[in-house]
Design brief:
NhaC_Na-H+_Antiporter, single chain, mainly alpha, transport, antiporter activity, Na+/H+ antiporter NhaC, transmembrane helix, 444 residues
Length: 444
């Protein structure tokens, strides 16, 4: 038998009610009214928070409402969430500066000039994969490339939601595989395996999704640039994006990368007379205000998750998914289901990996699952569902910048959808376990 939920209790289903109520409310109003914009995410999550405050915890008569407020505030102020809020603000500032000093226009025209028509969308996806793998963060990638994608979509006559979806997909590629990604670090540390071994197993599981996504994008109908058409661009204006890519490849922290990009954009804008020094401050501030709603949502979600943990919802979910696990394939499916549902509940793939990690390790040891494969499953499914959650940071940023509902982007995040499909296929056939057993043999 497995260890009893890594030392945790069974929890209670009541702890999941706030999330369930939010999802039902959001979907019902969105479908019923014909638009998901009719129920702002911040309002829907606020309603879920109110429900979490009202719900009592069975057997707990000592925790006061003030104690619940403290729990909520600690959850909303969690380190990774505050970091995410700062990245949101920096991303908005960079977007505002890049747009004002015409970096976006130059970057789009430069891409149209060098890429064959059929390779524009696949090229953008592969660039997103490269940038995210280099930066180790999907948020930084989305923030840097979505402005380019938005401008590009209007020039080639492609649905902006599709372009946002392919960028989010490419961003989750790096989130899943990068050696400096917090999800990779969390998965390998929780399962006590080497990063390079986890990478070998993981890349084999997602490579078919990458190849198919590139091929499908190559056949999307676009208004391809006419042969011989000259697209004007100023190479100097592209420098902020070049800085972001090069500094990411060097492994610089995402906050440092965004700050350098903003500063570079301001200097070039001043040099070209796009704005004065005082106007540049307003440009930076305006860009930040575009992300205020998203930053608030991140804090509310963090507080909501903390209250759900207090109410026992997360523990109940852990227990329900692991109590009947008996076979290796069943164990792998349990790990995938566990981390997926935790990611849906927390909208944070790193937190979901850390929460599921101890149980995944126990399941691996009991069912004979190679820990490196288990780490790959944890990272793959958490990253895939994070890229498909309309209230997670990636789609929130994309939707805010494109001024569309995050829900409308989900059908076009093809790479994340294919990650799930191929992840399940490889669990079903037991591959690449057998293929890699010589180099990835045994558990620690």
């Amino acid at each position: 038998m497995l260890k009893e939920d890594a030392g945790k209790g069974k929890g209670g289903f009541i702890g999941l009610l706030p999330l369930i109520i939010f999802l039902v409310l959001y979907v019902t109003v969105g479908i019923g009214s014909g638009s998901f914009d009719n129920i702002p995410l911040a309002i829907g999550i606020s309603i879920a928070c109110i429900v979490a405050f009202i719900l009592p915890k069975k057997g707990d008569k000592e925790t006061t409402f003030g104690d619940k407020v403290t729990i909520f505030c600690k959850g909303g102020g969690e380190n990774t969430l505050i970091l995410m809020v700062i990245i949101y603000l920096l991303a908005g500032a960079f977007y505002g500066v890049a747009n004002s000093m015409h970096a976006v226009d130059s970057m789009v025209n430069f891409g149209l000039s060098i890429l064959p028509g059929r390779m524009i969308l696949p090229g953008l996806f592969l660039i997103a994969c490269l940038v995210s793998f280099s930066m180790g963060t999907s948020m930084g990638t989305v923030s840097a490339l979505i402005p380019i994608g938005i401008a590009l979509s209007s020039k080639i006559g492609v649905n902006v939601a599709l372009v946002c979806g392919l960028i989010v997909g490419g961003a989750m590629f790096g989130d899943n595989l990068s050696f400096i990604s917090d999800t990779t670090i969390a998965a390998t540390r929780m399962l006590e395996v080497e990063m390079k071994d986890k990478f070998k197993a993981n890349i084999l599981m997602v490579l078919p999704a990458v190849i198919i996504n590139v091929l499908v994008l190559a056949f999307v109908k676009i208004d391809a640039p006419a042969a011989g058409t000259v697209y004007a661009y100023n190479f100097v204006n592209i420098i902020p994006y070049i800085l972001i890519i090069l500094l990411s490849l060097m492994g610089m922290n995402v906050m440092q990368v965004m700050l350098v990009g903003i500063l570079g954009g301001v200097v070039i804008g001043l040099f070209h007379g796009d704005f004065t020094l005082l106007e540049s401050l307003k440009v930076v501030h305006t860009g930040m205000t575009w992300m205020e709603d998203m930053a608030l949502i991140a804090v509310l979600v963090g507080g909501l998750v903390a209250l759900m943990k207090y109410l026992g919802g997360i523990d109940w979910l852990l227990h329900a998914l692991t109590r009947k696990t008996k076979t290796r394939r069943g164990g792998e499916l349990a790990i995938a289901s566990l981390v997926s549902l935790l990611d849906i509940a927390t909208t944070n793939n790193t937190i979901s990996i850390i929460s599921a990690g101890p149980i995944a390790r126990d399941i691996s040891d009991e069912m004979g699952i190679d820990r490196r494969r288990a780490a790959s499953i944890l990272d793959l499914f958490s990253s895939a569902f994070n890229g498909l959650s309309p209230y997670a940071g990636q789609l929130l940023v994309a939707g805010a910048m494109a001024k569309i509902s995050p829900v409308t982007i989900i059908p076009y995040v093809w790479y994340c959808l294919m990650m799930i499909v191929f992840g399940l296929i490889f669990i079903g056939i037991g591959w690449p376990n057998k293929f890699t057993e010589k180099s990835l043999i045994g558990n620690k």
